[in-house]
Design goal:
two-stranded antiparallel ribbon
């Protein structure tokens, strides 16, 4: 078996299926060259022209080979890890609801910005790609991951739960043309689901476990790539908390992330601060580079500067005499 075949065989069924569907759609784009704007997510066209098919088509279409390549590699990595923990049926439903609800959140937010603030740019903007759902899956996977700390592009490390938020900001700086609101919609949806706010639209664990025993579905459940639900039930279930806890968690995560970013910017601009630098003693440096007024140079106190500490350098008086004589 080749390396590529081994890699494909290791991808669970639901993750592999959505990857195959996206690749098939992109093959259709390359072959028939349709007008991509007819399939993108555009809130104005959805709300005022009732083009609701864009909720689905916008997640399956991609803008370029690099676009779909990056999205499918991310889907393979995140989806494989998540599906192995929650099972194929739960993963399939998560992806299905993710496609529909990320687009819904995107459209609703764009409409809200227009109604409340008169900001209409998002209503006319076109976006496409599977990355919104990928961010939803990344939130779920990060919450289930045993690793408490993750690295963002090897540059800095954050907690696993803040990793999708850090990735959102980092990607926006690296590629400003990508859809910030589309990715944010996926993060919000994933946060809601991870706290049980979407349990009402998901079948119970008992029903899904019973579904795995149906003889009519053996053509699916008997495949090597099918992952059964854990005996303890889906780890995404939450007994309490629900929507209110999810909302407070999202707000808390945003506040903490903004606070960390502000602290980082403050450190980069102002350093550690005077209190943190008390252990650093550089009197000569401070005197040599201090303000003239503080040293009393205007009152003829040039000798207050410790010229003797600067071995090998001319004194201030010598430098001035040399400058007047044209030597310097």
């Amino acid at each position: 078996m080749s390396r590529a075949a081994e890699t494909l065989a290791s991808i669970p069924m639901a993750t592999l299926s959505i990857m195959a569907l996206c690749c098939f759609v992109y093959l259709y784009q390359v072959t028939f060259d349709p007008i991509v704007q007819d399939f993108t997510m555009c809130p104005r066209l959805v709300l005022y022209l009732n083009e609701y098919y864009r909720f689905i088509s916008s997640a399956l279409f991609h803008g370029s080979l690099m676009h779909i390549g990056m999205n499918m590699m991310s889907t393979m990595a995140i989806g494989t890890s998540l599906e192995n923990q929650i099972g194929t049926f739960t993963m399939a439903l998560t992806i299905l609801w993710g496609i529909l609800l990320t687009s819904t959140i995107y459209t609703f937010t764009s409409w809200l910005l227009y109604i409340v603030f008169g900001y209409e740019k998002m209503m006319y903007q076109h976006c496409l790609g599977f990355s919104g759902v990928i961010f939803q899956l990344s939130v779920l996977e990060a919450n289930l991951s045993p690793n408490r700390i993750r690295s963002v592009f090897g540059v800095f490390r954050v907690s696993s739960k803040l990793y999708p938020w850090a990735l959102l900001v980092a990607l926006q700086f690296i590629m400003p043309q990508i859809s910030f609101l589309g990715h944010l919609s996926g993060i919000l949806l994933g946060t809601l689901q991870s706290h049980g706010a979407l349990d009402v639209i998901f079948p119970s664990d008992a029903y899904l476990r019973n579904l795995e025993t149906w003889t009519s579905l053996e053509i699916i459940t008997s495949k090597p790539g099918f992952i059964k639900m854990p005996e303890t039930g889906s780890p995404l279930r939450r007994d309490s908390g629900g929507l209110l806890l999810a909302i407070f968690t999202v707000l808390g995560a945003v506040v903490q992330f903004v606070k960390d970013v502000c602290e980082t910017i403050k450190f980069c601009i102002f350093g550690r601060g005077a209190d943190a630098n008390e252990n650093i003693q550089l009197p000569e440096l401070g005197a040599a580079w201090g303000a003239a007024d503080n040293l009393g140079m205007g009152a003829g106190r040039e000798n207050d500067i410790y010229d003797g500490e600067w071995a090998g350098l001319p004194t201030i008086d010598e430098a001035r005499r040399s400058e007047r004589s044209g030597l310097i």
